[in-house]
């Protein structure tokens, strides 16, 4: 991409970060679908991986790395704002609702740690695998890259988040890491036509198709 930042790139990055933050806010609710117990975030969190795939496939690992860290920073700002909002004194007529605020928006420290760690490891693994597979396949068979990278990234994300957040609790017994992983991977598989459409559109409009031949894949290296 060089130093050029297109409007399309900004839109994809914004949607990626929006999906991430939304998922973290609604993850507190556990839902039951077909007998499976899943976090409510399942309805939108996989989209962050889909848009992460799009970022890496079109713009490359280096651009995706910047957006991943930007997402981390934006999520941290939201968490801090919610925490400070919870500490501020409530208006006299609103005090009875403080418990509801804390229940829905109050982050348990271990859940917050689980979310941050799982996000960084999962997203970077997803982007790394896709970038490497693109080189190996010489840009062919996009579906193998999007699904293959999701299997790795979402697998790590699910295992890390559930283990850190719920180990030793009834939720840990109720939520199956394997089921959560399979549902997320299935989500990506079903969304493959959408991913193809967006990737093809961006490659045509942007006039780029990035290969990470000389990229340094250190996740902590912001610039190359």
Helix-strand layout with pairing:
Elements: H1 7-26, E1 30-33, E2 36-39, H2 45-59, H3 61-87, H4 98-105, H5 109-136, H6 142-166, H7 170-174, H8 177-190, H9 192-206
Antiparallel strand pairs: 1-2
Helix pairs in contact: 1-2, 1-3, 2-3, 2-5, 2-6, 2-8, 2-9, 3-5, 5-6, 6-8
Rounded to an integer in angstroms, the radius of gyration calculated over CA atoms is 19 Å
Sheet with most strands: 2 strands, antiparallel
The largest sheet has its strands arranged as 1-2
- How much helical structure, as a percent, in the residues? over 70%
Describe the global form: globular
- The number of distinct helices, counting runs of at least 4 residues, comes to 9
Unreliable stretches (pLDDT < 50, length at least 5) are: none
Mean pLDDT: 89
- Our estimate of the beta-strand percent is under 5%
Distance between the termini: 12 Å
Structural class: mainly alpha
Q: Name the helix and strand elements from N-terminus to C-terminus, one letter apiece.
A: HEEHHHHHHHH
Our count of domains comes out at: 1
Keywords:
single chain; 224 residues; mainly alpha; two-stranded antiparallel ribbon; 4% strand
Please give a quick description of this structure:
With 224 residues, the protein is mainly alpha-helical. 70% of the residues lie in helices and 4% in strands.
Explain this structure.
70% of the residues lie in helices and 4% in strands. The chain has one domain. It starts with 6 loop residues before the first helix and ends in an 18-residue tail after the last helix. The model has no long low-confidence stretch (mean pLDDT 89). The protein has 224 residues and is mainly alpha-helical. A two-stranded antiparallel sheet has the order 1-2.
């Amino acid at each position: 991409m060089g130093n050029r930042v297109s409007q399309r790139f900004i839109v994809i990055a914004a949607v990626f970060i929006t999906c991430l933050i939304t998922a973290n806010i609604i993850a507190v609710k556990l839902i039951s679908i077909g007998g499976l117990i899943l976090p409510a975030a399942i309805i939108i969190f996989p989209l962050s991986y889909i848009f992460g795939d799009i970022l890496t496939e079109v713009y490359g690992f280096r651009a995706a790395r910047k957006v991943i860290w930007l997402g981390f920073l934006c999520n941290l700002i939201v968490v801090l704002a919610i925490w400070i909002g919870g500490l501020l004194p409530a208006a006299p007529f609103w005090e009875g609702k403080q418990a509801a605020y804390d229940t829905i928006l109050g982050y348990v420290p271990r859940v917050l740690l689980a979310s941050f760690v799982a996000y960084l490891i999962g997203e970077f693994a997803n982007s790394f695998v896709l970038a490497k597979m693109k080189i190996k396949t010489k840009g062919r068979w996009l579906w193998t890259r999007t699904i293959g990278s999701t299997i790795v990234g979402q697998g790590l994300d699910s295992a890390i988040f559930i283990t850190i957040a719920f180990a030793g609790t009834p939720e840990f017994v109720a939520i199956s890491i394997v089921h959560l992983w399979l549902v997320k991977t299935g989500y990506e598989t079903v969304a493959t036509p959408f991913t193809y459409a967006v990737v093809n559109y961006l490659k045509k409009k942007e006039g780029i198709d990035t290969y990470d031949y000389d990229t340094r894949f250190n996740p902590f290296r912001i610039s190359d």
